Amino acid sequence: MLPFALRPLLAWADNLSETIRRALTEHYDQHGHALFWTYNHGNREILDLIALDEDNLLHARRFALDHALVDEVMGPMQALRMLYLERGRRQRWRDLVEGLSPTLLDPATGAPRSDLRFRDTALHAVLAQYLTETDQARSGRAAAQPDGGARPYTSGGTETASSPPETAMQHNPRHEVERLLAEKTELSLRRAVDLAHQIDDRTLEATALIQLGRWYRAQREPRFERMAEACYEKSRTLAGKTDHLTTARALDGLGALQLDRVNRLNKEHLQRLVQTGAIDMSRPGRITVPLPKEALDALALAASHYTEALELFQEDDRKSDELRASLHHQLGGIYKMVGANEKAARHYRQAVLAHDLAGDPLRAAQSRMDFAEFLVHRGGRVEDALLYAQKALHDYQSLGEPCREQAAAAQSLVDELTRTVGNAP
């Protein structure tokens, strides 16, 4: 390991040595969290890498403790925790936690110091979990509160006025996870996943993974799409067969990723056709282009995810109306693309109904507009399309200024369909 090889040379460089050591410590803080993250997303082979890097992680931890770099202590600790607990070295882990005194822990009580301040406030709950685990292992004492949160550690055994404000969440790690989820940044979402895993709340971890997957998907880059897929698959595994709503949301995310792939493949296919002269974009009118095989395969996979999600629910399950509406809408669009018009129409109708039951006029209007356009272009059912477009226009207008553009588009479609119906023989 390069950092291990560098350490004997640092004695030659006095002032520079301190700078380099600090930089290496900061690197191993991030590296430790990344190792922990990778392991907990199913890569069990990462333990071998942690074992190879054990000496460097221990050195970074020691330097951080000696220089009161409290946040930088925790990255190496996270990685070493996986190594020691998974490979039966529990006493070594307990020694490592006790060795956090006096920098992080009060030597008199074994609890976090009252003046402890982490830049990343989620680390307070992680530290509390370390202490809970070691207490359980040492004495078998019940260490959890009735709600399942980590035991609160303070210098006097109870919460005191001297406790730092930012550590309030350590008494209920689930509240800290919810706070991190509300921030909606990559770092906060990853911290939320880590903390939910630490407190062994599978439902909360699965929910956090779905939100992190949505963040990655929103980046619209292939490397992030792979990370999003890993998040959705892990969430699906955690939710299992008992938490149907979370499982369905994970499947919804997997389906959305496949539709993103379809859109990208279609765009690339169309560009190739234009470049080769197979399509003349200067000619007016609608252009119908056959889907490439890769896009058809992705559509089939998306449809299977959405269908599997729908099969988890009963039609009279009111709690799932919003999600079922979205799933039906997506399936309507998929079947429209492959020319399965009867299936497309059935799913569009069910999407509209479920959106209405969920009390969501905005998405109901969107489904009505898509269905109206489908009825015109795929069935020539102009009168039916007009009814759906008129209701969509009414819903958009009722929502006011935020939907002004959608209302204008709906008005244009209503006007066009009204003229068509009026000119019919």
Could you please describe the fold and organization of this structure?
The protein has 425 residues and is an all-alpha fold. Helices cover 69% and strands 0% of the residues. The protein has helices spanning 2-6, 14-39, 46-52, 54-66, 70-86, 90-98, 122-139, 173-183, 186-198, 202-218, 222-239, 244-275, 293-310, 321-337, 341-357, 361-379, 382-398, 404-423. Helix 2 (14-39) packs across helix 5 (70-86), helix 8 runs antiparallel to helix 9 (186-198) and helix 10 (202-218) runs parallel beside helix 12 (244-275). The radius of gyration is 28 Å and the shape is elongated. The N and C termini lie far apart (83 Å). Residues 140-170 have low confidence and may be disordered.
**Biggest pleated sheet:** none
Percent range of helical residues? 55-70%
Q: Output the number of helix runs.
A: 18
- Unreliable sequence segments: 140-170
Mean pLDDT, nearest integer?
83
Helical/strand content category: mainly alpha
The strand count comes to: 0
Proportion in β-strands: under 5%
- Rg is 28 Å
Terminal CA distance reads 83 Å
Would you list the SSEs in sequence order as H and E? HHHHHHHHHHHHHHHHHH
- Indicate the multimeric state: single chain
Shape: elongated
Task: Set out the fold topology.
Elements: H1 2-6, H2 14-39, H3 46-52, H4 54-66, H5 70-86, H6 90-98, H7 122-139, H8 173-183, H9 186-198, H10 202-218, H11 222-239, H12 244-275, H13 293-310, H14 321-337, H15 341-357, H16 361-379, H17 382-398, H18 404-423
Helix pairs in contact: 2-4, 2-5, 4-5, 5-6, 7-9, 8-9, 9-10, 10-11, 10-12, 11-12, 12-13, 13-14, 14-15, 14-16, 15-16, 16-17, 17-18
